[in-house]
Amino acid sequence: MFSRFHIEGRYEDKLLILTPVAVKTEFQRQHISKDILEYGFVKAAEMGFEVIMVEGDPKNYVPRGFAPSYKFGIEAGEKLHLPHPDCLMIKELTEGSSADMYGIVDYSFYETLHEC
User: Fold this and answer.
1) How many CA atoms lie within 13 A of 28 on its CB side?
2) Which member of 25, 51, 106, 115 has the greatest number of CB atoms within 10 A?
């Protein structure tokens, strides 16, 4: 669900990326994904991580404390084909923890993993 992530080779020790959370249809609307996310945020903070990034529908993540990443100086790279800039979001686990973060989000390093 959470993986270490970097922006332009920086922040790997403080930044995690959240992959989309899915709950089986018959178990939806029971706060399962909310509870899983909240538990994950607590554990991530306990492990020393400070910021979570996610790409997804803002209506699913803004209620969990996420905000558009561009408001924090973190922008989507050209290869990220987002339907809207608001779809790349971050959540500070501690207020102000992204203050020194900035850069362009790029997934191209994942392409090199598939070549191995």
Assistant:
1) 7
2) 51
Distances from the Cα of 18 to the Cα of 26, 115, 116, angstroms: 23, 23, 24
> Per-residue pLDDT tens for 10-69?
999 999 999 877 888 998 888 888 898 999 999 999 999 999 999 999 998 999 999 999
Helix (H) or strand (E) holding 110: helix 108-115
Sorted by sequence, the CB contacts under 8 Å of residue 53 that are 6+ apart come out as: 5, 15, 16, 17, 18, 69, 74, 88, 89, 90, 91, 105
Q: Check if the beta carbon of residue 51 is closer than 8 Å to that of residue 98.
A: yes
pTM: 0.86
Q: How far apart (Å, rounded) are the C-alpha atoms in residues 96 and 78?
A: 27
Cβ atoms 74, 102 nearer than 8 A: yes
pLDDT in tens, 103-115: 999 887 655 444 4
Identify the structural domains of the chain with CATH numbers, from first to last: 2-115 (3.40.630)
